[in-house]
Design a protein that fits this description.
The protein has one helix at about 115-125; strands at about 15-20, 35, 40-55, 60-65, 70-75, 80-95, 105. It is mainly beta and about 140 residues long. The N and C termini lie far apart (about 30 Å).
């Protein structure tokens, strides 16, 4: 989390996200795999529910509680993941709109999935949407919701 405001980034993408609630490897709900963005700053504005965002930087580990009205912001290179403690919905403000989906996100995975480029690509491939809100619960791709 940045302690200072460094200015609002250009080429901003804004999306609504309903954070999934299935268990992560450590048994906590939601958020999936910790990841980082190489060139994009990212921010969350919480609109519903409760949870946390875990971050890891050269300054150390931090867990920021999330509830409606909280805004959390972090810079490129920050390893982060969301934790859904119940009905967590956020507005994501992402620098360089579209770039994260085009390869800027780097996921942290077990060593066997990092063995070669093809194995990594298969592990991080986003599955086809399932149900009304899709696999990851993104609402921005469903106009009118």
């Amino acid at each position: 989390m940045s302690a200072t405001y460094d200015g609002f980034p250009g080429a901003v993408g804004v999306s609504r996200l309903r954070v999934h609630d299935w268990p992560a490897v450590d048994g906590r709900a939601g958020g999936g795999t910790p990841h980082l963005h190489l060139t994009c700053s990212e921010g969350y504005v919480v609109t519903a529910g409760r949870g946390a965002v875990q971050t890891l930087t050269t300054s150390g580990y931090r867990e920021t509680p999330l509830e409606p009205g909280v805004a959390a912001w972090f810079t490129p290179g920050t390893i982060h993941r969301l934790i859904n403690e119940g009905g967590l919905e956020i507005v994501v403000v992402m620098q360089n709109s579209g770039l994260p989906e085009a390869g800027d996100a780097v996921l942290t995975l077990p060593q066997d999935l990092l063995a070669d480029p093809e194995t990594y690509a298969a592990a991080v491939r986003i599955p086809a949407a399932r149900g009304r809100f899709g696999m990851c619960g993104r609402l921005d791709v469903y106009p009118g919701i």
